[in-house]
Amino acid sequence: MTQHSSERSIYSGLFWEGDQTPSLATAESLTRGLMELEAPLFLLQKGNEFYCSNQGTIGTRIGGAYRILATSPAILPSDLGDASFKETYGTRYPLYAGSMASAIASEDLVIALGKAGFMGSFGAGGLLPARIEKAIDRIQAELGDKPYLFNLISSPFEPAVEAGTMDLYIRRGIHAIEASAFINITPQLVWYRLAGLSTLPDGSISIANRMIAKVSRKEIAQKFMQPAEEKLVSRLLLEGKISEEQARLAQFVPLADDITVEADSGGHTDNRPLVTILPAIIQLRDQIQEKFHYSQPVRIGAAGGIATPEAALAALMMGAAYVVTGSINQATLEAGTSAYSKNLLAQMEFTDSAMAPASDMFEMGVNVQVLKRGTMFVNRAKQLYETYIRYGSIEEIPIEEREKLESTIFQQSLEEIWEECLKFFGQRDPKQIERALQKPKFKMALIFRWYLGLSSRWAVVAEKGREMDYQIWTGPAMGAFNDWVRGSYLEDPGNRRVADVSAQLMTGTAYLLRERMLEAQGITLPEAVRQYIPAAALV
Predict the structure, then answer these.
(1) 354 - beta bridge partners?
(2) What's the distance, CA 357 to chain centroid?
(3) What does DSSP assign to residue 197?
(4) What is the pLDDT of residue 309?
(5) Kind and range of the H or E element at 517?
(6) 3-state secondary structure of 7
(7) Residue 427 CB burial class (10 angstroms; 0-12, 13-18, ≥19)
(8) Alpha carbons within 13 A on the beta-carbon side of 124
(9) What b-and-e string marks burial along 235-244, b requiring 16 or more CB atoms within 10 Å of the CB?
(10) Would you say 18 and 57 are in contact if contact means Cβ atoms under 8 Å apart?
(11) Nearest to 110 by CA among 86, 140, 81
(12) What per-residue confidence (pLDDT) applies to 488?
């Protein structure tokens, strides 16, 4: 340990007083002292030697034996982040696990996090209401009033599914949702928000239905930060879905309580750099707050790349009220995906992801970020999109090209795939079939989406013979996590429990904050002290 810039020390001329003899400042004692999160840490000097202690006080006596060089206050993981976020959702920590579709963010994952003082968002995307209701039954039974979220993913090509899911949430008393991938505000979002508004006896507004919106663009964030559009409010009032009182209160509250700024994440992402987009949306929030004067300003959280204590600390220091994890949770024991996929993720480097066409927004050219190592999905999905752009119908595809698609990608004839589409959409959304029969290009899109949709399912169930087609949503964060835990007990995916991973992340963040505070006071610490390595399970 060394000291520099001592002339700037606020403790110049002050000495330490305590009953116990301080420890010589070695890498081991400094690490141990920083890990005593509930106690302050004093860095001291006596003669030419450096010492540290977690007890004692700043003395008033002149000429004490130990001169104070720097201090770090007690900082617990529960002290981090925005207190109002934790109060609103009933969490101990400013971290929630974002949804991963098709119940990869499973009931087990949500329940484990809720019981440990965190919060998880059930991955309802791609599921029918009947399956979501089973998840509601179990999560509500096991968590009670402990925190949890349910996801609502934008479904522009399946509006009936989105409407049915929202109807279920309102009917079953789901009072906190995570809205993701929305480009425009839909009537369902406004209905959910306003249906939970009422006036308290003191005249203030009670908000029963909380909403966290996941966005990566300023123009979309602005829509969620503002009150609901008057035309949508009037429409819901006319339809009898909200009361006149709720319609009146709509002008006084933002559509969402929280905005999760999604940077370079797995799944749907614009690959935004967090250091650019987070400050921009915080600034936008401040401008909107100045205009509307909400009693509780919209909070801004950070997602995408949150996989190490360094990343979490950076986000919180930039002003994030909370952080959101994603990719790293998919490799935990509670995630609703196969051991095969988890092992692939545990071997991933941060350069092993790539963008590929998304199933739910295929026609719009929207991409998702997925694992490219150990799978051919990226190349094959791009080939399908290029074919879709090039031709107007299945019939226009040259026979040689069509046969190649059937043999290498679909492993069935396209006629057989279409029959499966008829069965699937006949149950899920018959209007899709009607549209496909009228528009040949849309029929081609449905057939191609068969592969894009099932490829993620194959990864979840470890479909034999389809390993090269697995679609595994992930971003660079997964590789960064693997680098962080290499050599620790968390290197083995069999040891990765979601609540413990979250606890290690928050504990490491508190540890690093204490360490950085010492450095800001002119102390250079040994390299071994400047990183937090998980030593043993915390949960």
Answers:
(1) 370
(2) 21
(3) E
(4) 98
(5) helix 498-520
(6) helix
(7) exposed
(8) 33
(9) ebbeeebbee
(10) yes
(11) 140
(12) 97
Q: According to the model, what pLDDT value does residue 402 have?
A: 96
For 462, phi then psi, to 5°, come to 55, 55
| Token pair for 265 | 């994440």
CB atoms within 10 A of CB 160: 13
Instruction: Please name every residue paired with 261 in a beta bridge, in sequence order, or none if there are none.
Output: 215, 302
Query: Can you list the alpha helix ranges (DSSP code H) found in 347-410?
Result: 377-390, 399-405
DSSP label of 259: E
Whole-angstrom Cα distance, residue 110 to residue 148? 6
Q: For 349, phi and psi rounded to 5 degrees?
A: -95, 165
Paired sense of beta strands 49-53 and 23-24, if any: antiparallel
Q: Model-level pTM?
A: 0.93
Token couple for 297: 């300003």
> Within a 10 A sphere around the Cβ of 151, how many other Cβ atoms?
24
The Cα-based distances of 408 to 66, 212, 357, 412 in angstroms read: 74, 41, 18, 9
- Residue 399 CB coordination number (10 Å): 7
DSSP tag of 6: G
Residue 19 contacts by C-beta under 8 Å, 6 or more apart in sequence? 55, 56
Residues in the chain, pLDDT under 70? 1, 4-9, 60-63
Nearest to 57 by CA among 68, 69, 45: 68
Both tokens assigned to 166: 């929202």
Helices (H) and strands (E) in the chain, counts: 19, 21
What pLDDT is recorded for position 6?
Answer: 53
3-state DSSP assignment of residue 473: strand
Answer whether 45's CB lies under 8 Å from 71's CB.
no
Closest alpha carbon to 127 in 336, 310, 375, 322: 336
Residue in the structure block whose two tokens are 């196969």 = 338
How far, in Å, CA of 150 to CA of 377, rounded?
28
Look at the block and give the residue holding tokens 């046969």.
403
- The backbone torsions φ and ψ at residue 436, rounded to the nearest 5 degrees and listed phi first, read -65, -35
Q: Which two tokens stand for residue 243?
A: 């009361």
According to DSSP, the β-strands at 49-53 and 57-59 are unpaired
Rounded distance between C-alpha atoms, residue 330 and residue 103, angstroms: 11
What Cα–Cα distance (Å) separates residue 341 from each residue in 265, 459, 463, 493?
Answer: 18, 6, 11, 11
Residue-wise burial string across 73-87, b where 16 or more C-beta atoms lie within 10 A, e elsewhere: eebebbebbbeebbe
- How much of the chain is in helix, strand and coil states, percent to nearest 5? 50, 15, 35
- Residues in contact with 36: Cβ distance below 8 Å, sequence separation at least 6, in sequence order: 54
Distance separating alpha carbons of residues 444 and 387, to the nearest angstrom: 10
What does residue 471 show for φ and ψ, rounded to 5 degrees? Answer: -105, 110
Task: Identify the three-state secondary structure at position 470.
Answer: coil
User: What per-residue confidence (pLDDT) applies to 62?
Assistant: 65
Alpha-helical segments (H) within 239-392 = 244-249, 274-292, 309-317, 339-346, 377-390
Sequential DSSP letters for 55-108? S-EEE-STT-SSEEEEEE----GGGSS-HHHHHHHT-SSSEEEPP-TTTTS-HH
Amino acid present at 518? L
